[in-house]
Every structure is written in C-alpha cells, then in structure tokens.
Write a structure and sequence with these properties.
alpha+beta
Length: 95
C-alpha cells in the first residue's frame, strides 16, 4: 500500500480593511490608513464607540462639540455605515 504525501497549504485569513472618517460640527477628517476587523459588525461597533469617546473627550476639555459622526468606508471606498454621537443640553435655569 502506497501513501501519498499531502501538501498542506497555509490559509491566509483576510481581514477586511475599514476607513473611519470623522465628521464633526464643521470638518471632515479622512482616514487614509484604515483598520482591519474580523467582520463588519466589529467595525460598526468600533465606529459607535469611537464617536462616543471623541464627543466625551471634547466635552471634558470644554469643547463646544455637540455631534460627531464616524463614516465608515470599506476597501472599495464605499460608505458602508455611519455612527453618530450627539449631546443635547437644555438649560432650564438662568445663570
């Protein structure tokens, strides 16, 4: 009985690249490098968390920023999702 050798080829896993463009009240900052994520949902979750963190950090530094949107592009430069964080303050007393 003759055994045939089996060649095992390494399988390279491809993680999609996503670009996170940041839009605030006045500006758009394009992401030129991108980040790899195992799936679309992970990239979408990261966009939501990033928008919230940017807005929170801006407010902590006495910034006037009230809304941040992360627009996510895929490897083909298509906008595939967007996540926004918004702070709305309604002052109800005179100071």
């Amino acid at each position: 009985m003759e055994l045939h050798s089996v060649e095992l080829h390494s399988v390279e896993l491809h993680m999609p690249l996503y670009f996170f463009d940041i839009r605030d009240d006045e500006n758009l900052f394009k992401d030129e490098e991108g980040l790899s994520f195992p799936d679309f949902e992970s990239a979408e979750r990261e966009a939501a968390e990033a928008a919230a963190c940017i807005l929170r950090d801006s407010r902590r530094q006495n910034g006037r920023l009230s809304k941040v949107t992360i627009e996510v592009r895929d490897e083909h430069q298509r906008c595939v999702t967007a996540a926004s964080a918004l702070i709305q303050i309604e002052r109800r007393i005179e100071t």
